[in-house]
Write a structure and sequence with these properties.
Length: about 325
């Protein structure tokens, strides 16, 4: 197919008028020429197509080789690039061998930029998305729309979590390993988790079958709002705040080995706000983490207040009534 642009003049006096020689020479300025391909019809093929062949997953400490092949089998020139979480072992014109740089289970990609040797094709880039590593990773949302990275131990002032694991093609199995909590579905992704009232934490073992074999991870969720006992409520002249006793939660590291972390509920500052207008009316700092604190609020008028308790992970909020 050829596209011809020129400045030829149709000699048709009745239609275009008399040609004036003073108009010459003339020029034509072209910004661009676009050629559109029709939607492929049934039975038709893309002459410039190709494919990167290989596994969608690479195991940590393992290697995978990927091959690029064109539709017609011609030996076009291929240039390989990868995402930063992949290390290139070696390449040839149509093959690349790579390995993960970390055991953390992350998404990645490899790209083959192909200089086709036949017309009408020129240079085209093909991408293959894949998952590399070993550890199960994801994100979670708790109590708000703020998305956070899934950690070994996750702290929140909400007792419910929505967790999305990174590899959507896998089937995951969730199993409660400690604490008291409910699941949306043992095999769901995204997954919903709720710590049952009266419990401060829960741990889950998450497992999935991959090309790397069966991999698993134990993660813990800690509900920090349940850390504190506030009395009396309604209050008169004093409010007493006491944190829960220390306890342990289970989690697993990158090797998959289950261990425990000591959770030490404490706080360092409390603040009271007027319930109606949000004005701060009281603040007391401990300047270090403490397990309990007594607030003298004898100077405050009766009414409703909002109590903020600050710890190293977040701020929990409680509603207080003061009576006189």
């Amino acid at each position: 197919m050829s596209v011809i642009f020129n400045t030829s003049i149709m000699k048709n006096i009745n239609k275009y008028g008399v040609i004036d020689d003073n108009d010459f020479p003339s020029t034509m300025e072209v910004d661009y020429i676009r050629v559109y391909q029709k939607i492929p019809q049934s039975g038709k093929v893309d002459l410039c197509d190709g494919e990167i062949e290989g596994s969608d997953e690479i195991c940590y400490t393992g290697q995978e080789t990927y091959t690029f092949s064109t539709l017609d089998g011609e030996n076009s020139t291929v240039t390989w690039t990868t995402s930063s979480n992949l290390n290139v072992i070696n390449t040839s014109n149509n093959e690349i061998t790579i390995e993960p740089t970390s055991s953390v289970f992350t998404s990645g990609w490899i790209e083959a930029t192909v200089d086709f040797v036949h017309a009408p094709c020129s240079t085209k880039t093909f991408t293959k998305n894949l998952y590399a590593g070993q550890l199960i990773e994801g994100t979670y949302v708790s109590g708000s729309t703020t998305q956070k990275t899934l950690q070994s131990v996750n702290f929140s002032n909400s007792n419910s979590f929505n967790i999305t694991l990174d590899n959507p093609t896998n089937t995951y199995t969730w199993q409660l390993s400690s604490g008291n909590a409910a699941l949306g579905n043992p095999n769901a992704n995204p997954q919903w988790v709720q710590i049952i009232s009266g419990s401060s934490s829960a741990s889950f073992n998450i497992s999935t079958s991959t090309d790397c074999g069966l991999i698993s991870r134990t993660v813990a969720f800690v509900h920090t709002s349940g850390w504190y006992r506030i009395s009396p409520n309604p209050s008169s002249n004093y409010i007493y705040i006491e944190a829960e006793e220390d306890y342990e939660v289970q989690y697993s590291d990158e090797t998959g080995e289950v261990t425990t972390q000591l959770i030490q509920p404490s706080f360092s500052k409390v603040t009271l706000y007027n319930f109606n207008n949000g004005e701060q009316v009281f603040e007391q700092n401990a300047y270090q983490s403490v397990k309990n604190m007594t607030l003298d609020i004898s100077h405050l008028p009766a009414g409703q207040y909002v109590l903020h308790i600050d710890n190293e992970y977040n701020t929990t909020t409680h509603q207080i009534i003061v009576e006189r």
